[in-house]
Amino acid sequence: MKYIRVVMLMLSFVSMSLIASAQNFKKDQQKQERIIKAAYKQKKITTVEYEKLMKEQYSIKQTIEKYEKDGVMTSKEKNNLNRDLKNAEERLGKYKTNAEQY
User: Fold this and answer.
1) Most exposed among 15, 40, 75, 85, judged by the fewest C-beta atoms under 10 Å?
2) pTM of the model
3) What pLDDT does 20 receive?
């Protein structure tokens, strides 16, 4: 009986940590989306660049939802999301500093 409680407790910690990491991905994605909208509003990026970035954000959002469906986020899935978020951040940086005047 004692072992069952220990196992149940361990499983609850694991599930809470998975939920917390998934929330971080959502939070990071939402933060990037806000930054993109602010850059567009300040005319630091063009309409075409804005649309490309928002399309990419939509894709990332869909990927997060897909990975969360089964309730388990593997390390491969986490790595994919980290890579996607990092690439989106780098792309935004390039668009913001392309030295064009609008």
Assistant:
1) 75
2) 0.72
3) 52
User: Residue 70 to residues 18, 42, 53, 57, 81: CA-CA distances in angstroms?
Assistant: 11, 39, 28, 22, 16
For the stretch 55-101, pLDDT in tens is: 999 999 999 999 999 888 999 999 999 999 999 999 999 998 886 55
| Whole-angstrom distance, CA of residue 26 vs CA of residue 78 | 12
- The one-letter amino acid code at 92 reads L
Length of the chain (residues): 102
How deeply is 63 buried, as exposed, middle or buried, from its count of CB atoms within 10 A (0-12, 13-18, 19+)? middle
